[in-house]
Amino acid sequence: MEESEKKGFGRRDFLKGVGSAALAAGFIGLQKGEALAAKPAGTPNNGLPTTLQTYPTINANPNSEGYWNQVRKAFTLPNNYIHMNTGTTGSQPLFSQVNLAVYNNYKSADPKDWQTNLNADFPSLFPLESSILGPSAIGPRQAAIAAAYGANKDEIVLSYNTTDACNLIFAGTPWKEGDRIITTTMEHNAFIGPIAWARDYHKVEIVVIDIPSNFDASITVPQVVSWFETELARPLPAGAKQYVVFSEIFYKNGVRMPVKEICTSARDNFGAYSIVDSAHAWGMLPVNCHEYGADFIAGAGHKWLCGGPGTGIFYIRNSGANLPPFAMGNFFLYGDQFKDPSYSYNTREWKFNPYLLTPPNLAVQLRGEYNTPALFAMCDSFSFFKYVGLQNIYDRGVALGNYLKDKIAARWRGALWVEKNTDPAFATFLTSFNPFQGKNDSAKYGAMNAEISAILRVLAAEDPKIYLRSTTWRDKKTDSADNRVGFRISTHAMYNNYAEIDWMFARLVAQIDASKLQQLPRL
Asked: Average of pLDDT values for 197-218?
């Protein structure tokens, strides 16, 4: 029995334990009053933050719980809030929130030279570089992200979210009748909509691969790759091209696809291109874009990277052979009414634009007035993650996820939608399960979906507040509607811990036991 499930361990004990653990680690963290201290009367922006902050330093053994308790103190999540839905949105670190306000203050005070002013006042925290448009703060941040994620600087765009990047990819790809898209039953609307658009308006063939709802531990990487290869091997019309379009991590059940193996096989064996939805990658996985071999990677900044709303990272391969045909998907720099046709017309490759004198990533980055303060704050959050260590974060998050999966597997036989696999290639921070009898019975889907939703509402009303979510999906592509449902729990290395998992699971079990639905057999 876990410590938090023992008789006598109550809510106050839980809150006391979380708080005292952080204090014992010797880290108090930034307080709101300190971060937002008012300037002396008579100075500009009185009462608002005017000083950029760096990420907090962590003074503890990285292998200890004390270290991760200190990391958690960088966030404003209260001790009586268990946030286990980072798969929907993350919590932004306090110092990054403060910097967002500073960026907006400087921009409002001097719209012309605000970035130059920030560089003058905080040269180490706000680097600039020369560009064709003058001093640029975007460039150094693209370079830092590229270096951490195995890309070239001019392959990185700071975007607004995964959907934003997916729309750009599809709008910039010269689709032709007879082209083929190979995708899966587990995709998000960020892909579903653009794929349907390509089918409806450009007569692109759509092939959908069934992903097993019960992703058991016997499934192997070669087996998954073979699902795609079977469809890639089918003949294409002359001159047609084909794409594999899939999520790196399925948001519905949390399983990770072998991106490198799928993209490599698609490119080397079939000459196909690849578009990857990595909404859950940045901040969770130690991504290496070049090793992945994908042509396009679209991801979010507001989820696991905790970069704040309306942020993302978008990778477009522009090195190596067989570059994808791409005309930016950004009409802001596509061309003009004076040159016919525009330079970007019928572009076969993503490359430097001599007509507009722009490097590739700048051609997509510049889409009118974009929210630079938010993107800068996302990059500040990224700097904290890099300091903690991308691999360290991944290892910790997987360990937390496996801890939860073990608790579920020990309670109910067959509840996990994605079993813990001996191959770590499938491992993520997301856990999906359904503890009710008939989880594979479509006729019981409605009752189970309603009951799971009711349980989530109860947990969110408790103290501590527990924020989880559920997801639904079709078991087969031939199904007419969603007919599978599960709890989906996110365990983030940066602010979740084992005590929170114990408490959450005990409260979740209590609500499931109170349900009128029959449960799966217990072990």
From this structure: 97
State the Cα–Cα distance between residues 16 and 95, nearest whole angstrom: 25
- For position 1, what pLDDT does the model report? 44
Among candidates 421, 396, 386, 194, which has minimal Cα distance to 307? Answer: 386
Cβ atoms 382, 305 nearer than 8 A: yes
The C-alpha atoms of residue 108 and residue 369 are separated, in whole angstroms, by: 14
pLDDT in tens, 439-474: 999 999 999 999 999 999 999 999 999 999 999 999
Give all strands (DSSP E) within 23-176, no chain letters: 81-83, 156-159
Q: From 429, 486, 418, 481, select the one nearest 453 (Cα to Cα).
A: 486
Cα separation of 303 and 91, whole Å?
8
Q: Which of 389, 422, 407 minimizes the C-alpha distance to 58?
A: 389
- Identify whether the C-beta of residue 292 lies closer than 8 Å to the C-beta of residue 316: no
Q: How far apart are CA 203 and CA 407, in angstroms?
A: 48
Cβ–Cβ contacts within 10 Å for residue 237, how many?
11
Segment 254-303, tens digit of pLDDT? 999 999 999 999 999 999 999 999 999 999 999 999 999 999 999 999 99
Q: Which residue has the higher pLDDT, 171 or 43?
A: 171
| pLDDT given for residue 4 in this prediction | 43
Q: Is 282 left (phi over 0), alpha (psi -120 to 50) or beta?
A: beta
CB-facing half-sphere around the CA of 487: CA atoms within 13 A: 30
Question: ∠ at Cα 339 (241, 319), nearest 5°?
Answer: 40
pLDDT number for residue 494: 98
What is the number of alpha carbons within 13 Å of residue 16 lying toward its C-beta? 6
How does strand 156-159 pair with strand 312-316?
A: antiparallel
Asked whether 386 and 58 are in contact (CB, 8 A), the reply is: no
Of the candidates 354, 355, 323, the one whose C-alpha atom is nearest the C-alpha of residue 339 is 355
Tokens 């499931």: give the residue. 512
DSSP 414: T
Element (H, E) at 481: none
Q: What is the pTM of this model?
A: 0.91
Residue pair 379/52 in contact (Cβ under 8 Å)? The answer is no
pLDDT tens digit string along 160-172?
999 999 999 999 8
Instruction: For 194-211, give the secondary structure using H, E and C.
Output: HHHHHHHHHCCEEEEECC
Query: What 3-state DSSP class applies to 400?
Result: helix
The helix (H) or strand (E) run that includes residue 115 is: helix 114-121
Average per-residue pLDDT for the chain:
90
pLDDT over 90 percentage in the chain: 78
Cα 44 to Cα 38: distance, rounded to the nearest angstrom:
10
pLDDT digits (tens, 9 = 90+) for 90-103: 999 999 999 999 99
Q: What is the largest CA-CA distance in the chain?
A: 78
